[in-house]
């Protein structure tokens, strides 16, 4: 089965751009009080991207984004249901509360031995409780499945799918498909600095003569005017697959079989191109509907967007224009 539907996560599963600064200078040193900690952004549990982040006095957003990124991996890559995620959060919060209670008790004893008054001790303890990002995130921002999805949509590059009405089938039942707009998906991908860096590397790379090692060495791309004459052109690769959502040996087989279309960019590194995690969902519909209504209706919105991408392209907030072709 291909990638599941959900937030569009470019090559690193990162959220919206966060303020960043360069790593510590030689004068500061790695352990200097002036050196900011490094925030690990997880695209999945096998790959980590390190982003040097200058934390402000209130860095709760960084914590929330990091926790949300980990939960997104659980849902999309490990395919854990929302009920399981909810159980993990609630039980881990109970463990955290026990640990925090123990630490605050030891802190209170230490402050007492240092001669602090009861009022001062209570102020310190209450301040620490209120600044507990783990608890605040779990009981507010990420407490329920609805709140988690709302946060994902607001802070990640989420592309909303669009329902496509096919009509009524032979049984008189209305049929629909789900289409994730290609141009918006590409805009979301290009908003990632990692993707843009790979586009630049691909453009500057020099291939040896008489050696075929990538799709870019084929005659189809050599004869494509857009890909050869436009520096900011994009090569779009589409995949089509079908999969069962029920027991393939049971009585429901073929009735609920799903046809899916995925997208990736030919401009990114080959190892990312071939990774399932980096493929973006484009379209879902029942295979029976595809056979009944035909490819012109099912793929109509996709073909229209691909033509518009080739003619008009997508414009990024910085004014850059990217055109693409299949």
What's the quick description here?
The chain has 326 residues and is α+β, with helices and mostly antiparallel strands. The chain contains 13 helices and nine strands.
How would you describe this structure in keywords?
two-stranded antiparallel ribbon, 13 helices, alpha+beta, single chain, seven-stranded mixed sheet, 326 residues, disordered N terminus, 2 domains, extended
Question: Which structural class do the helices and strands define?
Answer: alpha+beta
Mean pLDDT: 79
Biggest sheet, spatial arrangement of strands: 3-4-7-6-5-9-8
If you compute it from the alpha carbons, what radius of gyration comes out, rounded to the nearest whole angstrom? 25 Å
In terms of DSSP E residues, the strand content is 15-25%
Count of DSSP helices?
A: 13
Shape: extended
How many domain regions?
2
Instruction: Characterize the biggest β-sheet.
Output: 7 strands, mixed
Tally of DSSP β-strands: 9
Order of helices and strands: EEHHHHHEEHHHHEEHEHHHEE
Tell me the span between the first and last alpha carbons.
23 Å
Helix content class: 40-55%
Unreliable runs: 1-56
